């Protein structure tokens, strides 16, 4: 470690991984209160610059930390991560804690119930530090569409942290939280992971309960871990994953052995399929170079590299941008100013009708990107257009699933670069939605087919910014992601000698007195 | 106030036009929990006491299908002779409605759980001397959720316009409904309203026998939307239809359809066109008024509900449920009519009164079928009608009637006294025996007083007595009346007749 401080200084604590912190809390060398406080301090120091958090719950987190310490003292072991604090994307319902999904329309809304993820985190003894910033209702690839202002990439504060879960990945990259929860509808865990130099996993669709996640596109949404290592991701995956009878689409089977796979990290004899359609053209040269190197490292560890054809993947982006707005237009219909959230009266109207209040509220409460997609989705579902748009998109979805099935006949996992480029500058693509949408081209097929995917950092591109390596596995075989991810991570660490985040520039630190 | 639409005489309308009906019946299932969450469904609970994040549609909450509701849906489908879909989905019906928490209703669209069935209903023959079967074809029966209920406070009309504020009760939001949709019902001619009423009555009996719903129309657990259109006689192209919403009694269904037929005829006669629209039925004035026009705004943007996995009942399960179906109502009717020895006409009265189960129980409690029929289709039915109550909500039980008819059969009460006893039972004075005791109602049991009265009446009415002696036995009626009067009603009329005839013949 490059830490200049004494072994237990707050600076040292926040740079340690979740697995390590969990072990230290379990053996008593650190208390959960110490670890949680260290992260709260770090948030106070750097979050003005990063803006990863929309809401920090110091009191609640410390109370949970004390409870974790008491449980440990009483000999209860609730999970390997008991006492390790976590940040949660603001799209996850947290009882008693504001939940806005990055939208003004939910400003100040405090859910009266917990998402299943939240319930499981609490039960496993993980203190919740706060809620992380995101593109409004998870629509975006840069976290610039948050109603509460953008998050900044810890590698370069003038750049985007990826989206929509930029807050979660940035919090982990900036050492504000050892772990975070993200959601991935078209790449919103993996793409921010790639551009912030962190690990992000999108489990198999249905592998982690959606109950309590404010829905963007129900058939695509999937929550998963944002971490700094593959093992940390696996440990968190095990806590939040598994069947939930509150979610009818939840898979009724045990979570595959992800922790075991992450600890093993063995790729010898494994066939790794390169998807040529989303690895070459349009991808930044440094991103491509890192990708090629990673393939060589895997080959050196005994994997066999094969090339597979997935011709329908190129249609994925178009299908995605019909299915997502369609489902979103319906999911967002509930925000009508009548029962919760924002309510705005129309200007110059004395006794407005319910419809006028609703229209004024939606106008003030929804951002431009959300309005754009609601209109698109409403149009795509309307009578006379359904077959041409939504229906066709569903057919493409079937074709992509077939491509995956055929590819997985030839390879145990598929790999691509996670994102076509490294982090772009804030504001750079804001006026060009299509350019923004292209960022998710490599991640979207996994959501359309429901298969699991992971992004791990595989070095710095020619511009000195992190690039990501994406691994895709067959549905319910999330363990393969961890097997391959851990192997590549180990090989890279060996090469670099230290975690990639050690190469990130130091953040401006604000003096905080407590 | 609405302007009353012009109508033409019903018979005139039928002479020129063929009515075509489409009936959509919403049935509230009596499952313990809601369609997509674990909330209770009890009627009449404190507002918003039976709600959770799911049925309130809170951000993030997800539905899970109630297996008991699916079971009821399949049983209803089977009882309606439908095919059961081996695989079907829910869809979202997107529209704004203040009572709807998600601004979409989770329903079934192009993939109903049950389809292609029929229900045979019995209606009187044209000349009224018997019954015939009219087959109503069922297009589909599908599952959906109910919405909440608004209460508009402060206005004079109870409508949202003019109200100071509105309250919404979401207790009913998410209660499971089955919507049963007929194919266009044609060929009923002038009896179309009657067929509609008989269909809903038959459906109600069937649902009751299945035990899947409380079928309380007055509480809204069965609601009927009636579509009506007219075709000029001799033509075969369907006319424009109107949909009269939420008609909630058998009588209203008949009246509303009859009214719409007359109104359509008036519009068509005037050369105007029928507007496709929803109509509201007004029980008090017996008319329908214009509601919302059907328009392009009715684009519900249906798409498969992504939050729910498909419903895929195995054929073994469906067959197992088929085994749980009750005896079909028509077979059961035939069996009961035979057991009870009723004529066709008598049986029809029983069915019209909705008294089959009540009679069955009354007979089981010891009454004769004849007495049970007489009470339920006569006195009790009359009183329930007058009070606008359902016959099974009249305050008397089959056990009461069995007891009452026992008192008559044993000679303790005559019919007039029995009616007085019924008054007492209805007034909550106790069981029939208790009422009779308390009110001192009993026929004179010793012949002495009766014989004395007979002699007195014969002596006072010599002219009548002479007629009886001449063989005109009908004339004895006047003497019996006199005896009853003499005895202040406390006499057994049959015994009095015996005594009179014994004296005079
Ligand atoms: Zn509920």
From TrEMBL, chain A:
<dbReference type="InterPro" id="IPR036928">
    <property type="entry name" value="AS_sf"/>
</dbReference>
<keyword id="KW-0547">Nucleotide-binding</keyword>
<keyword id="KW-0067">ATP-binding</keyword>
<dbReference type="GO" id="GO:0030956">
    <property type="term" value="C:glutamyl-tRNA(Gln) amidotransferase complex"/>
</dbReference>
<keyword id="KW-0648">Protein biosynthesis</keyword>
<feature type="domain" description="Amidase">
    <location>
        <begin position="34"/>
        <end position="481"/>
    </location>
</feature>
<dbReference type="InterPro" id="IPR000120">
    <property type="entry name" value="Amidase"/>
</dbReference>
<dbReference type="GO" id="GO:0005524">
    <property type="term" value="F:ATP binding"/>
</dbReference>
<dbReference type="InterPro" id="IPR004412">
    <property type="entry name" value="GatA"/>
</dbReference>
<dbReference type="GO" id="GO:0016740">
    <property type="term" value="F:transferase activity"/>
</dbReference>
<comment type="function">
    <text>Allows the formation of correctly charged Gln-tRNA(Gln) through the transamidation of misacylated Glu-tRNA(Gln) in organisms which lack glutaminyl-tRNA synthetase. The reaction takes place in the presence of glutamine and ATP through an activated gamma-phospho-Glu-tRNA(Gln).</text>
</comment>
<feature type="active site" description="Charge relay system">
    <location>
        <position position="164"/>
    </location>
</feature>
<dbReference type="GO" id="GO:0050567">
    <property type="term" value="F:glutaminyl-tRNA synthase (glutamine-hydrolyzing) activity"/>
</dbReference>
<feature type="active site" description="Charge relay system">
    <location>
        <position position="89"/>
    </location>
</feature>
<keyword id="KW-0436">Ligase</keyword>
<dbReference type="GO" id="GO:0006412">
    <property type="term" value="P:translation"/>
</dbReference>
<dbReference type="Pfam" id="PF01425">
    <property type="entry name" value="Amidase"/>
</dbReference>
<feature type="active site" description="Acyl-ester intermediate">
    <location>
        <position position="188"/>
    </location>
</feature>
<keyword id="KW-0808">Transferase</keyword>
<dbReference type="InterPro" id="IPR020556">
    <property type="entry name" value="Amidase_CS"/>
</dbReference>
<comment type="subunit">
    <text>Heterotrimer of A, B and C subunits.</text>
</comment>
<comment type="similarity">
    <text>Belongs to the amidase family. GatA subfamily.</text>
</comment>
Automatic annotation (TrEMBL), chain B:
<dbReference type="InterPro" id="IPR017958">
    <property type="entry name" value="Gln-tRNA_amidoTrfase_suB_CS"/>
</dbReference>
<dbReference type="InterPro" id="IPR014746">
    <property type="entry name" value="Gln_synth/guanido_kin_cat_dom"/>
</dbReference>
<dbReference type="Pfam" id="PF02934">
    <property type="entry name" value="GatB_N"/>
</dbReference>
<dbReference type="InterPro" id="IPR006075">
    <property type="entry name" value="Asn/Gln-tRNA_Trfase_suB/E_cat"/>
</dbReference>
<keyword id="KW-0648">Protein biosynthesis</keyword>
<feature type="domain" description="Asn/Gln amidotransferase">
    <location>
        <begin position="357"/>
        <end position="504"/>
    </location>
</feature>
<dbReference type="Pfam" id="PF02637">
    <property type="entry name" value="GatB_Yqey"/>
</dbReference>
<dbReference type="InterPro" id="IPR003789">
    <property type="entry name" value="Asn/Gln_tRNA_amidoTrase-B-like"/>
</dbReference>
<dbReference type="GO" id="GO:0006412">
    <property type="term" value="P:translation"/>
</dbReference>
<dbReference type="GO" id="GO:0016740">
    <property type="term" value="F:transferase activity"/>
</dbReference>
<comment type="function">
    <text>Allows the formation of correctly charged Asn-tRNA(Asn) or Gln-tRNA(Gln) through the transamidation of misacylated Asp-tRNA(Asn) or Glu-tRNA(Gln) in organisms which lack either or both of asparaginyl-tRNA or glutaminyl-tRNA synthetases. The reaction takes place in the presence of glutamine and ATP through an activated phospho-Asp-tRNA(Asn) or phospho-Glu-tRNA(Gln).</text>
</comment>
<keyword id="KW-0808">Transferase</keyword>
<dbReference type="InterPro" id="IPR023168">
    <property type="entry name" value="GatB_Yqey_C_2"/>
</dbReference>
<dbReference type="GO" id="GO:0050567">
    <property type="term" value="F:glutaminyl-tRNA synthase (glutamine-hydrolyzing) activity"/>
</dbReference>
<keyword id="KW-0436">Ligase</keyword>
<comment type="similarity">
    <text>Belongs to the GatB/GatE family. GatB subfamily.</text>
</comment>
<dbReference type="InterPro" id="IPR017959">
    <property type="entry name" value="Asn/Gln-tRNA_amidoTrfase_suB/E"/>
</dbReference>
<keyword id="KW-0547">Nucleotide-binding</keyword>
<protein>
    <recommendedName>
        <fullName>Aspartyl/glutamyl-tRNA(Asn/Gln) amidotransferase subunit B</fullName>
        <ecNumber>6.3.5.-</ecNumber>
    </recommendedName>
</protein>
<keyword id="KW-0067">ATP-binding</keyword>
<dbReference type="InterPro" id="IPR018027">
    <property type="entry name" value="Asn/Gln_amidotransferase"/>
</dbReference>
<dbReference type="InterPro" id="IPR004413">
    <property type="entry name" value="GatB"/>
</dbReference>
């Amino acid at each position: 470690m490059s830490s200049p401080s004494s072994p237990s200084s707050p600076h040292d604590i926040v740079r340690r991984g979740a697995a390590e912190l969990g072990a230290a809390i379990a053996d008593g060398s650190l208390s959960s209160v110490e670890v949680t406080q260290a992260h709260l301090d770090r948030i106070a120091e750097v979050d003005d610059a990063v803006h990863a958090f929309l809401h920090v719950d110091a009191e609640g987190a410390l109370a949970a930390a004390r409870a974790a310490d008491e449980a440990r003292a009483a000999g209860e072991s609730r999970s390997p991560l008991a006492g390790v604090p976590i940040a949660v994307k603001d799209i996850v319902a947290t009882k008693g804690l504001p939940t806005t999904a990055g939208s003004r329309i939910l400003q100040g809304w405090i859910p009266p119930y917990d998402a299943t993820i939240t319930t499981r985190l609490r039960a496993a003894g993980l203190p919740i530090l706060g809620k992380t910033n995101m593109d409004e209702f998870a629509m975006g690839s840069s976290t610039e569409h948050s109603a509460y202002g953008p998050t900044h990439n810890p590698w370069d504060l003038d750049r985007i942290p990826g989206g929509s879960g930029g807050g979660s990945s940035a919090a982990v990259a900036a050492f504000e939280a050892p772990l975070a929860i993200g959601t991935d509808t078209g790449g919103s865990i993996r793409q921010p992971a790639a551009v912030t130099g962190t690990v992000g996993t999108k489990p198999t669709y249905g592998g982690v309960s959606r109950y309590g996640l404010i829905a963007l596109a129900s058939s695509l949404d999937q929550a998963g871990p944002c971490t700094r290592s593959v093992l940390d991701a696996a440990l968190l995956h095990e806590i939040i994953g598994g069947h939930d009878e509150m979610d009818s689409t939840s898979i009724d089977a045990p979570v595959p052995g992800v922790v075991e796979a992450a600890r093993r990290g063995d790729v010898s004899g494994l066939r790794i399929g390169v998807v040529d359609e989303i690895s070459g053209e349009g991808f930044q040269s440094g991103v491509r170079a890192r990708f090629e190197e990673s393939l060589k490292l895997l080959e050196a560890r005994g994997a066999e590299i094969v090339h597979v054809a997935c011709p329908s993947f190129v249609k994925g982006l178009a299908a995605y941008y019909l299915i997502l707005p369609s489902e979103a237009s319906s999911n967002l219909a509930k925000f009508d100013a009548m029962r919760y959230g924002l309510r705005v009266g129309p200007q110059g109207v004395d006794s407005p009708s319910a419809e006028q209040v609703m229209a004024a509220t939606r106008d003030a409460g929804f951002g431009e990107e959300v309005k754009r997609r609601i209109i698109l989705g409403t149009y795509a579902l309307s009578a006379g257009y359904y077959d041409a748009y939504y229906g066709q998109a569903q057919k493409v979805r079937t074709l992509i699933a077939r491509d995956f099935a055929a590819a997985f006949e030839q390879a145990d996992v598929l790999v691509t670069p996670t994102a076509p480029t490294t982090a772009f500058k804030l504001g750079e693509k804001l006026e060009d939605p299509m350019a923004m949408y292209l960022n998710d081209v490599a991640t979207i097929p996994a959501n359309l087919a429901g298969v699991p995917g992971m992004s791990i950092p595989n070095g710095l591109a020619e511009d000195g910014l992190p690039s990501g390596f994406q691994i895709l596995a067959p549905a319910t075989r999330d363990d393969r992601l961890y097997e391959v991810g851990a192997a590549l991570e180990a090989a890279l660490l060996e090469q670099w000698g230290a975690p990639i985040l050690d190469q990130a520039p130091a953040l401006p630190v604000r003096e905080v007195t407590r | 106030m609405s302007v009353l639409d012009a109508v033409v005489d019903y018979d005139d309308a039928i002479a020129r036009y063929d009515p075509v009906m489409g009936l959509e019946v919403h049935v509230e299932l009596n499952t313990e929990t809601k369609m997509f969450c674990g909330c209770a469904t009890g009627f009449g609970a404190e507002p918003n006491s039976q709600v959770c994040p799911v049925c309130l549609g809170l951000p993030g909450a997800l539905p899970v299908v109630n297996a008991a509701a699916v079971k009821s849906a399949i049983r209803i489908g089977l009882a309606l002779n439908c095919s059961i879909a081996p695989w079907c989905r829910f869809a979202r019906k997107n529209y704004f409605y203040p009572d709807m928490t998600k601004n979409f209703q989770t329903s079934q669209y192009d993939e109903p759980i049950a389809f292609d069935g029929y229900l045979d209903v019995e209606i009187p023959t044209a000349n009224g001397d018997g019954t015939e079967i009219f087959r109503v074809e069922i297009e589909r029966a599908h599952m959906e959720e109910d919405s909440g209920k608004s209460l508009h406070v402060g206005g004079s009309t109870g409508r949202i316009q003019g109200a100071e504020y509105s309250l919404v009760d979401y207790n009913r939001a998410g209660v499971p409904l089955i919507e049963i949709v007929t194919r266009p019902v044609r060929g009923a001619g002038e009896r179309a309203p009657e067929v509609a009423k008989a269909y809903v009555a038959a459906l109600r009996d069937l649902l009751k026998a299945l035990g899947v719903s409380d079928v309380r129309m007055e509480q809204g657990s069965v609601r009927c939307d009636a579509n009506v259109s007219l075709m000029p006689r001799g033509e075969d192209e369907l006319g424009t239809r109107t949909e009269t919403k939420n008609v909630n009694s058998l009588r209203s269904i008949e009246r509303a359809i009859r009214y719409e037929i007359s109104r359509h005829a008036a519009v068509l006669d005037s050369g105007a066109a029928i507007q496709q629209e929803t109509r509201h039925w007004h029980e008090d004035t017996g008319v329908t008024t214009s509601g919302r026009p059907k328009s392009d705004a009715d684009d519900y943007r249906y798409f498969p509900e992504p939050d729910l996995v498909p419903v895929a009942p195995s054929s073994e399960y469906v067959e197992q449920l088929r085994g749980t179906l009750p005896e079909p109502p028509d077979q059961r009717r035939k069996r009961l009519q035979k057991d009870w020895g009723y004529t066709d006409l008598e049986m029809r009265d029983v069915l019209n009164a909705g008294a089959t189960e009540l009679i069955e129980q009354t007979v089981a409690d010891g009454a004769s079928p004849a007495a049970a029929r007489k009470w339920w289709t006569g006195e009790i039915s009359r009183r329930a009608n007058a009070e606008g109550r359902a016959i099974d909500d009249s305050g008397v039980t089959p056990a009461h009637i069995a007891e009452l008819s026992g008192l008559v059969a044993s000679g303790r009460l005559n019919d007039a006294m029995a009616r007085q006893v019924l008054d007492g039972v209805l007034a909550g004075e106790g069981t029939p025996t208790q009422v009779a005791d308390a009110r001192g109602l009993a026929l004179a049991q010793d012949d002495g007083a009766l014989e004395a009265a007979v002699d007195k009446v014969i002596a006072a009415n010599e002219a009548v007595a002479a007629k009886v002696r001449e063989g005109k036995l009908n004339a004895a009626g006047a003497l019996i009346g006199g005896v009853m009067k003499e005895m202040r009603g406390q006499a057994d009329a049959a015994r009095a007749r015996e005594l009179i005839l014994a004296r005079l013949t």
